[in-house]
Amino acid sequence: MTRTPWNSDFRPHCENGELARMLAKKLESRGLDFRLKTYADSMCDDKHVEKLVVVNPQAPERGEVHVGDDGGVTWKYFGTLDGAGTDRILDEITNALRATGLRLRRESA
Length: 109
Hints:
Elements: H1 13-29, E1 33-40, E2 48-55, E3 64-68, E4 73-76, H2 83-97
Antiparallel strand pairs: 1-2, 2-3, 3-4
């Protein structure tokens, strides 16, 4: 079995924490704000988990991106599931995941 962050209890916290701080400085240089959150690891009492929470201060309505010290990235968007809200969520997800030049699938008539 291939070892990944999701099937392993191995986390090089110190090295990854340093990389996260370097990433935070690069994000800050691009005009984004961040907070570094640290909390106790639920799997091991003597370890901690670090997470970057990144926001665009000029457009906080676009949500937050959480980057964990295990490499996990989560986008938290606080939208609504009304017509306009779902259209906005659709656009945000599409822009984040679609590669340049990827063709749209047409629905069958």
